[in-house]
Amino acid sequence: MKKLIFTLLSFFIVLSASAHAVFIETSLKGIQGKSHAIKIVYGEPDEHEVISKWWWYKAGMEITLTLIKPDGSTSSLTTTAKDDHLLTSFIPDQDGMYHVSLKRDTERKEGAKTQYQINAIATIQVGNSTIGNTATHLDNELFVFAEQTAFKNKKEVTLTLFQKGKPASNTAVQIIAPSGWIKWLETDEQGRVKFTPEWKGKYYAEVSKREKVTGQDFEEYSRTSSMSFAVK
């Protein structure tokens, strides 16, 4: 029993140990012809910082998201600022898998050696169709993608990390469970991580990765990315 408890504790860490990140919060199921709300939040899931505290946000700034429809066509979604989040919406006009994508370089102070980049995606299913659920629809430089469209409790989940369109191996991915715990996993040679969820509800995957660069007035990119999926 002691060994079992130690093993569990070695895999799970209290959520408060997690660094803040930018998330897209939205219902992962949509209805054709009905407005679908999308929030951009900073902090930890369900524990948001007020907008004035966001280190990458300037008062009055509008963030533009990319909406990718099931047929691959795209449009822009412009957010408006609320007390502790940015808000936008769209009306689905076809069944299938919609992707909402955020990709933005933060403001960099003069002389800073690191350029930070925020990436976040959300995948919304409208109707029962799975058309459009392909990683090639996304052009984020760092993102976690789920080929499967249904997630069941106690059943293995597979996620793939992509960097610049290719699977990224040997990279730590943080899984945040609805219970308030997190689990760290490392991608294999195909950029995949696998785990078995222990609770129902919405899960988040977070990742950060640094890359040395040349020919710029900074030395490295530090990219972060987040996505969510629902386990039933």
Describe the structure.
Helices cover 4% and strands 49% of the residues. It has one helix at residues 2-11, and strands spanning 12-14, 21-25, 29-30, 36-44, 47-48, 64-68, 74-78, 80-81, 86-90, 96-105, 114-126, 142-145, 157-163, 166-167, 172-176, 181-186, 192-195, 201-212, 220-231. The strands form three sheets. Strands 1, 3, 6, 7, 10, 11, 15, 16, 18 and 19 form a ten-stranded mixed beta sheet that branches. The longest helix is centred in the N-terminal third of the chain and has 10 residues, at 2-11. It starts with a helix and ends with a strand. Residues 1-21 form the signal peptide. Keywords: Signal. InterPro entries: DUF4198 (IPR019613).
Rg from Cα: 18 Å
CATH architecture: Sandwich
The proportion of residues in beta strands is over 45%
CATH hierarchy class name: Mainly Beta
Tally of distinct domains: 1
* Low-pLDDT regions: 1-18
Q: Give the % helix.
A: under 10%
What is the CATH topology? Immunoglobulin-like
Series of secondary-structure elements, N-terminal to C-terminal: HEEEEEEEEEEEEEEEEEEE
How many β-strand stretches?
19
Write a brief caption for the model:
The protein is mainly β. It contains 1 helix and 19 strands.
Topology:
Layout lengths: L1 H10 E3 L6 E5 L3 E2 L5 E9 L2 E2 L15 E5 L5 E5 L1 E2 L4 E5 L5 E10 L8 E13 L15 E4 L11 E7 L2 E2 L4 E5 L4 E6 L5 E4 L5 E12 L7 E12 L1
Parallel strand pairs: 3-11, 11-19
Antiparallel strand pairs: 1-16, 2-4, 4-5, 4-9, 6-7, 6-10, 8-9, 10-11, 12-13, 13-14, 13-17, 15-16, 15-18, 18-19
